[in-house]
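Weekly sync, protein design subgroup
Attendees: M.S., D.O., the rotation student, P.L. (late)

Item 1: inverse folding check
M.S. brought a backbone from last month's batch and wanted to see whether the design step gives back something sensible before we order anything. D.O. pointed out we never logged the input encoding, so this time it goes straight into the notes. Structure tokens as presented (557 positions):
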């Protein structure tokens, strides 16, 4: 329930999701249960977001009195779901595709188990909240960690005093990386899965999958059930290492995608093709979705970590309904997710100076931002060119063809001077240009559509990196703070060294992901440009052939 409040102090926002408030400003708080010291609400300028609960007082109207209560206590729970619109916090899209979401009725007899964190993930950024740097930020409040915490790497003799970011919407917090770096993730008795990072010539890289494979997606088929009441599209999915096809719907892909987001917090998980409210069974949409699912699958199978995920293997190989349910539930109960996933990483012994790592990450951040801008620009230009191919170019060539046809017709109106050969040649020229117009209209499906598909994939991958980089930035901040506290005698050096060691794990993982991105980028963009140029050459050759045949008609006159 919304309540009115008044700002006691001025607060200037510096991070995504926060809003500025001025002293004595009237505010609206959407829920008076704060989330670890933060309220979500609206200021007098209509801006919506979060601000510190201790900076405001709630105005309560009581009968026969004008009493105000100062609300400072950080009530509420971490997993609380704020559903207020128009804030920078994003939630899953509406279930447009009935085909994609039908309570898993035909393949599971209970609802999918999803943690609260899944429901607050932004699919536009690898499931994390927008970038929210906290280093040296005076507006970020810290609280001491409980002295009784159990450290996963070192025993705490004095108790850690490294502060925690009270903005629990931060991706650094929600991903679990903060807890991992501070040593709050208990070691598991047995870790069944491990992912290794090697040192390559250009730095850390994921160790390749020892059993690489590919996977085809073919034959999208319209299916029905419940005597035709329910309609959906099924795809034949065939992994190369088994050769046995399985049949999957979009909702199965979506389930896998959400498990990947939940588990791999430091990996850029490719986005699935978008949903569509109408026209889901139109041929063009089905073909477009198939093309983009193929690209998604190619990225999955090429990734050394994602391709080895047990849930992915289950998705690709399980054809039995009963076994599918068991494997699905097992994946949903996976404990090695988020912060615990960091425990599965085996990093090189080579020393890396954290300042050098930070510089390398900053360089990649600048590169990714520029590449994202360039991909957006090329997407805009290519989309505009598609529009011209389908409309403007076709119409212009048709107009030119009609004009030639008109000339030919005019030449026939004075029979004694008509020249049938010339008239036929001019008339044929008109039809040639009409055909060329149709060639232009057909061409995008051979080149530009495929370019836009690849650009869309990379838009999604690039959109993930700001939040992943933010995890490393948050880890760097904890290392610097712990070292300062150790120098001041407020923390054991062993504990500060433990934080630094765990920060190295985060750093190696990010660098390995950066390396894989560059490796795939070189392969994908080489293939994209070669395919585009080959199709362009073939297209203009077809145009030239038609023009040459038409030209020869004039040689015989």
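Designed sequence read out in the meeting:
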């Amino acid at each position: 329930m919304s309540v009115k409040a008044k700002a006691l102090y001025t607060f200037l926002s510096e991070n995504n999701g926060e809003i500025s408030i001025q002293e004595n400003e009237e505010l609206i708080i959407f829920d008076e249960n704060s989330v670890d010291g933060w309220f979500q609400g609206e200021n007098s300028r209509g801006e919506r977001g979060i601000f510190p609960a201790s900076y405001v007082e709630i105005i309560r109207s009581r009968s026969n009195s004008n009493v105000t209560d100062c609300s400072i206590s950080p009530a509420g729970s971490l997993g609380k779901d704020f559903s207020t619109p128009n804030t920078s916090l994003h939630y899953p899209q509406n279930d447009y595709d009935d085909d994609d979401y039908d309570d898993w009725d035909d393949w599971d007899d209970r609802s999918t188990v999803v943690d609260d964190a899944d429901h607050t993930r932004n699919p536009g950024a690898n499931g994390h909240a927008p970038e929210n740097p906290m280093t040296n930020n005076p507006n970020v409040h810290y609280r001491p960690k409980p002295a009784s915490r159990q450290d996963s790497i070192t025993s705490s003799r004095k108790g850690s005093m490294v502060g925690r970011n009270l903005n629990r919407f931060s991706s650094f917090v929600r991903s679990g990386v903060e807890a991992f770096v501070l040593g709050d993730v208990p070691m598991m008795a047995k870790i069944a899965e491990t992912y290794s990072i090697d040192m390559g010539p250009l730095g850390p890289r994921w160790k390749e999958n020892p059993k690489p494979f590919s996977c085809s997606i073919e034959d999208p088929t319209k299916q029905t059930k419940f005597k035709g009441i329910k309609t959906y599209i099924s795809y034949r999915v065939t992994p190369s290492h088994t050769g046995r096809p399985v049949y999957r719907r979009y909702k199965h892909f979506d389930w896998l995608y959400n498990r990947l987001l939940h588990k791999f917090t430091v990996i850029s998980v490719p986005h699935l093709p978008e949903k569509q409210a109408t026209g889901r069974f139109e041929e063009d949409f089905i073909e477009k979705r198939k093309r983009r699912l193929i690209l998604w699958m190619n990225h999955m199978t090429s990734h050394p970590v994602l391709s080895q995920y047990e849930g992915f293997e289950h998705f690709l190989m399980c054809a039995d309904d009963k076994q599918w349910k068991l494997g699905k539930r097992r994946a949903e109960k996976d404990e090695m997710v988020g912060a615990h996933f960091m425990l599965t990483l085996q990093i090189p012994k080579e020393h890396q100076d954290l300042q050098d790592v930070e510089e390398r990450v900053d360089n990649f951040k600048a590169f990714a931002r520029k590449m994202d801008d360039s991909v957006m620009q090329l997407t805009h230009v290519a989309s505009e060119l598609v529009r011209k191919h389908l409309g403007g170019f076709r119409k212009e060539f048709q107009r030119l063809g009609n004009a030639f046809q008109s000339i030919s017709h005019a030449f026939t109106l004075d029979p004694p001077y008509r020249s049938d050969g010339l008239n036929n040649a001019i008339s044929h020229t008109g039809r040639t240009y009409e055909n060329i117009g149709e060639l232009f209209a057909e061409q995008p499906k051979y080149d530009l559509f495929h370019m836009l598909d690849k650009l869309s994939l990379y838009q999604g991958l690039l959109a993930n990196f700001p939040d992943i980089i933010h995890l490393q930035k948050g880890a760097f901040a904890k290392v610097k703070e712990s070292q300062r506290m150790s120098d001041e005698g407020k923390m054991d050096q062993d504990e500060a060294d433990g934080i630094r060691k765990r920060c190295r794990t985060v750093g190696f993982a990010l660098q390995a992901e950066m390396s894989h991105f560059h490796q795939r980028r070189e392969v994908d963009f080489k293939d994209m440009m070669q395919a585009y140029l080959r199709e362009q050459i073939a297209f203009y050759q077809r145009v030239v052939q038609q023009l040459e045949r038409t030209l020869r008609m004039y040689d015989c006159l």
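Discussion: The chain has eleven helices and twelve strands. The radius of gyration is 30 Å.
Action: P.L. to compare against the previous round before Friday.
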